[in-house]
Amino acid sequence: MTDIKETRLPGVGIRFDLPLQSGDHVVVINHQSGRVEIMLCREEDPDTCTEALRLSRDDAKALAEVLGQSRVTEEVTRMQLSLEGLAIDWVSVDVASACANCTLHDIEHQDAEAAAVVAVIRDGATIAAPPSTFILRPGDVAIAVGTQEGVESLSRLLQSG
User: Fold this and answer.
1) Which domain range does residue 143 map to?
2) What is the Cα–Cα distance from 87 to 150, expressed in whole angstroms?
3) Among 51, 4, 5, 60, CA closest to 31
4) DSSP label at 84?
5) Which of 12, 13, 73, 127 has its CA 20 to 30 A from that of 30?
6) Up-side HSE of residue 148: CA atoms within 13 Å toward CB?
7) Contact at 8 Å (CB) between 79 and 17?
8) What is the CA angle 59-90-119, rounded to 5?
9) pTM for the whole thing?
């Protein structure tokens, strides 16, 4: 199986490099906005890529469905940025999570680590600075901010409960 190289691009998104059996490689850039760029880079000049496709979030999801099961699943939407002790992470709330359908207050006080949900993406809309009474639903994407340890702990809670 081919290894896919993942490179975080702070402020942009995530870049994935997929080497092909032909020697060429495909570069996929998943932007934080949801836009996706797919480029083909030739073996003879790996630094020169031609832009092949520019897809919306919905187009990219449809293409992924057509291509079949992905080795890179929800990690595409999980972007993380660490700056001098501050971590930011986009975390999907799992259906099976014990934290699904709980208020932010209940969730953020389940553990001693330092992290908070500062925004939620629900049905394509961003809810900035939700109140502590806000209820997270399965399928929401919570933007967590805090220490690296705190964000990782909060992520575990939201994904498995």
Assistant:
1) 80-160
2) 9
3) 60
4) T
5) 127
6) 5
7) no
8) 105
9) 0.51
Whether 149 and 92 share a structural domain: yes
Burial class (CB in 10 A: 0-12, 13-18, 19+), 87: buried
Q: Are residues 89 and 125 in the same domain?
A: yes
149 closest CA partner among 111, 99, 114: 114
CB 97 within 8 A of CB 156: no
Whether residues 57 and 33 fall in one domain: yes
Question: Please, are residues 127 and 120 in contact by the beta-carbon 8 Å criterion?
Answer: yes
Q: Are residues 70 and 115 in the same domain?
A: no
**Which residue type occupies 8?**
R
Two structure tokens written together for 101: 């359908």
**What is the Cα–Cα distance from 88 to 146, expressed in whole angstroms?**
7
Residue type, 158: L
